Predict the structure.
Amino acid sequence: MIITRKKPEEALLSMLQGAKRVAIVGCGSCAAACQTGGEKEIGEMKAFLEARGFQVAATVLPDECCHKMLVKRDLKVLRGLDVDAVVGLACGDGVQTVADNVDLPVYPANDTLFLGQVERVGIFHEYCRMCGDCVLGVTGGICPVTRCAKGLVNGPCGGQRNGKCEVDPENDCAWVLIYRRLEKLGKLDALLSPTGGRRPAAHPAHLNLREVRK
């Protein structure tokens, strides 16, 4: 799940300077779960903006704001409306997807934080950096790229103390966790397998499952 939090109100108002009539677009998936873009949050944003003199011309809640075709369909309600800007209550990808489908400025009301594990409602933990070079098979299912503050993929640094990270003592050392997990599984020999270095990132990335591979 993509984890977002609300952007400071003054930052959003600064972006909206000069706009009078706006539309609000939320997200019924990740942002709704994070309580930053669901039906309730859209209503709260509408009330917030109207209290500050804005006119809210329309509100839209796509099921998934990152799905281009769904967003294109749902944004048809904005056609012909006199709107100066769109306020996006989604992640950064959702805001960009909305921007791809309207000829209007689209301003983010949220900050995108990380790809997270949902422990329970309202509690999220960053577990994956989406680096595209997964080493989980040799690290006991624990990602060192994400859960090590230094992103070390070839073992721990020398700074951990009592199993805690030297960068943030509130966090467990990822490599201590990896060792204990592998020990429990009887797979400590996996530590002898090189994980390799992280491959150079190539952005923006694309994946087309419709391509015919020869």
Observations:
- The chain has a mean pLDDT of 92.
- Residues 90 and 153 are 32 Å apart (CA to CA).
